[in-house]
Amino acid sequence: MITVEKLSYAYKPGTDACLRDISLEILPGQYIALIGPNGCGKTTLLKHLNALLLPGSGEVVIDGMKTAEVRHHALIRQRVGMVFQNPDNQIVGMSVEEDVAFGPGNLGLPSSEIRRRVSWALELVGLDGYEKRLPHTLSGGEKQLLALAGLLAMRPSYILLDEAASSLDPAGRERVFMILNRLRSENIAVVNVTHNMEEALQADRVLLMANGRLITDGPAAQILMQRDLLKANGLVPPLLAELSFRLGEAGFKPDKPIRSVEDLVEEIKKWCHHDQNLQVQNGLMSGVAGHV
Amino acid sequence: MYNQARYSARESVLHRTDPRVKLIAVLALSLALLNTAPLGLFIIVIFLLVVSLSSKIGPLELLRTTRPVWAFFAILFLIYIFTTAGTPLFSAPGLKYISREGLYLGIVQMSRFFLLFIAASLFTMTTSQADITMALENLLRPLRVIRISSHNVALMVSMALRFIPLLLQELNVIQEASAARGADLKGKNLKDKMRFMVYLSTPLLLNVMRRCDQLTEAMNARGYHHGPRTYLYELALSRTDYYALGLIAAIIVVLWYVG
């Protein structure tokens, strides 16, 4: 378990704090979306979870190890893996397989085990057959998958993704989330920093940050449907929230809170079975669809 | 040089030879080349020709790798023939005479550098960059005695090699961004181009510094530390490698013998 207790941090003493009094817990197997406007402290918080930054005040504890104690750093970085936004700045090896082997090599694993992990990780991200390729010859999406493979080969218990899927095409994103789902079933926790609210909707839990503070922490479906809260913090609500809101303006009153596409479809079906008064507003193009 | 002498994956004895053996061979031949007579040079030519054919790299392909340094060879040759005193061969009006000794020295020195270049190209064309750094890491291990980490040295070399294409891409992006804002260099004179390169160096340097910073963080996040580490493959000398070492030793002895 990762425990963050009253964490505050400023990059330079005397300057404004980037993180202010943050407390949270991350349990094994949870999929968490970390959202918030640019500069709100998301990346700074992630770096604390990997012991790349050390708390100014408060503490971060990874499976019982305090990040403030340098002697734990090697083990913490084995347990908590992180993929950054720009894949070019995190690829170390001169070939694909050599890059994936960098982390396991740092752990001092025998060559046979490194080879086994490299081949497993490359197959998992769909880069098998690319072993001898030079990293700079890969596309942006392939480089990001390579960075993910490098992290997976370390077999971490917690995975931190700092907008790691932002450079992927839809197929690549789908592949990454398929992999993450598989990892969740193996009790690996994932914290995904994202600006994509549809992506965040897939999470179990959402952490919303603004101005270095944790504004709210709760189930994804509950937080991401709060259109006004998201807008107040400079975020664009997911399509589902926007649709529910617009339907509400047209008189749609669901019996239960809408938390997924399935909920919305079910409530609309119920609504359609009742007698409806359709209001058509001036200046609004309305469409009526159905089947014979 | 970068493109021509790049590693080319093929199935050959030389490709399979341990990179440490190849690196030692290149270094030994380079030292021998500096002080060998024309007969020794002839022996090295024959040796490199046989090695090139056995590595399935044709002599012409090998010769092409030297193209970027032809100008350097020419300048070297001219310096020797015009600056070496001795028996005049012929002289032209307005030119200093060309001596027999100068011509001889020019040909010999140019041949030495040429063969050195060919040997290095054979090495880089038959050894992947990963293998080169691994060989370097292995051969520098004794430096641990004086507290120099062979792993760190090898990592620095590998990083430098890995970042060359990336920096070229970066420079290209900055040039394109500048051109998009009207700073197009096409048709400009050398002075303007030089001034522009100075102007480009600031964003390039800043980007390099930023990349270094992020790379350090990424390496730390992946558990990088100064202590010993393990590798994907461990190098092990085979019987063929021992034969190759023996052959190199024999050639060095012959070269020493013929002077």
Structure description:
The complex is a heterodimer of chains A (292) and B (259). Chain A has helices spanning 42-49, 73-79, 96-106, 111-125, 140-152, 170-185, 197-200, 220-223, 227-232, 239-249, 261-273; strands at 2-9, 19-26, 31-35, 57-62, 65-66, 80-83, 158-162, 189-193, 205-210, 213-219. Chain A is α/β, with parallel strands linked by helices and 292 residues long. In chain A, helix 3 crosses helix 4 (111-125). By secondary structure, chain B is mainly alpha-helical. Chain B folds into 2 domains: 13-143 and 234-258, no CATH class; 150-221, no CATH class. Chain B contains 10 helices and 2 strands. The relative contact order of chain B is 0.14. The mean pLDDT of chain B is 85. The chains are: A alpha/beta (292), B mainly alpha (259). At the A-B interface, helix 2, helix 3 and helix 4 of A face helix 7, helix 8 and helix 9 of B.
Keywords:
heterodimer; A: 292 residues; six-stranded mixed sheet; four-stranded antiparallel sheet; B: 2 domains; two-stranded antiparallel ribbon
- Give the end-to-end Cα distance of chain B, rounded to a whole number of Å: 31 Å
H and E order of chain B: HHHHHEEHHHHH
Q: What general form of chain A does the structure show?
A: globular
Poorly predicted segments of chain A:
none
Into which percentage range does the β-strand content of chain A fall? 15-25%
Quickly give the structural class of chain A: alpha/beta
Q: How many strands, which pairing sense, and closed or not: the largest β-sheet of chain A?
A: 6 strands, mixed
Mean pLDDT of chain A: 87
Number of strands of chain A: 10
Task: Please give the domain count of chain B.
Answer: 2
Task: Quickly count the helices of chain B.
Answer: 10
Query: Which structural category fits the helices and strands of chain B?
Result: mainly alpha
